[in-house]
Design a protein that fits this description.
This protein is of the alpha/beta class. The protein has a single domain (4-173), classed as Rossmann fold. It has helices at 16-28, 44-57, 72-76, 106-121, 143-156, 173-182, 205-217, and strands spanning 4-11, 29-38, 65-69, 123-127, 163-165. A five-stranded parallel sheet has the order 3-2-1-4-5, sandwiched between helices. The protein is globular. It starts with a strand and ends in a 15-residue tail after the last helix.
Length: 232
């Protein structure tokens, strides 16, 4: 199948979900632009490093790599990812409650900036690695949220043709791991830890879900961990 010629933007946090989303977009589109947000998160330094490594892997031109500072999210606080007064919690099992790692309305800010950039550079699609199953009830990772967001984008843009794509939203973490391997995505260049830049802690919600995904996929995560508990 030949790739589409239009330009697509991929939101690349540096995490595994966004990595696999980038790999899927690369299968579909010939021309990619990558967008990354620094918002004062605990692992900002490591995530930015991973962003550049992933962009290098997919040969994204430097003129199509956009890094935007939205550190007002840290000023607002309210999340263990950005607020120094809230500790990153250890994983305590699956829950339907919205955890304090939720960054208030973050994905809306991110997608809004991507839409603005898409209008400027002529992109028609925006890929985001939102995952409903592993996002601990984050309201901005639900399919219904993206349906509403796409309706807003259609209503509020010049040509009304830009759409947000969520190719991994219904996938389980072990399926994302297997997809990464299938598409030869550079897993070692991804980072999921909420707490540390040097070694992944292995005990926060995001590390736990990632490690469990690798266990269920029958594979070993190539990144370095401070602890590697079993979550199977």
């Amino acid at each position: 199948m030949s790739k589409k010629k239009e330009l697509a933007i991929v939101l690349v946090s540096g995490g595994m979900d966004s990595l696999v989303t980038a790999a899927i977009a690369n299968e579909e589109y010939e021309n990619l632009a990558f967008l990354h947000l620094n918002y004062g998160q605990n692992t900002e330094e490591k995530e930015l490093q991973c962003f550049h490594e992933i962009a290098d892997h997919y040969n994204v031109d430097k003129s199509l790599r956009k890094i935007i500072d939205i550190t007002f999210l840290k000023q607002i606080g309210g999340s263990s990812l950005t607020d120094d007064n809230i500790d990153v919690k250890k994983y305590k099992g699956d829950s339907d409650e919205i955890p304090d790692s939720y960054v208030p309305f973050r994905n809306t800010h991110i997608v809004s900036m991507a839409v603005s950039w898409a209008e400027v550079i002529g992109a028609v699609k925006i890929f985001i690695g939102a995952v409903e199953e592993d996002s601990s009830g984050y309201p901005d990772c639900r399919p219904s949220y993206y349906k509403a967001l796409n309706a807003l984008i259609k209503e509020g843009t010049k040509d009304g043709i830009i759409q947000v794509e969520t190719p991994v939203i219904h996938m389980k973490k072990h399926e994302i791991v297997k997809k990464a391997v299938e598409l030869n995505a550079p897993i070692k260049s991804s980072w999921s830890c909420y707490d540390r830049n040097d070694k992944a802690c292995g005990v926060c919600d995001s590390c736990a879900l990632r490690l469990r995904g690798f266990e269920q996929a029958g594979l070993e995560d190539p990144i370095e961990y401070d602890q590697r508990p079993s979550y199977s």
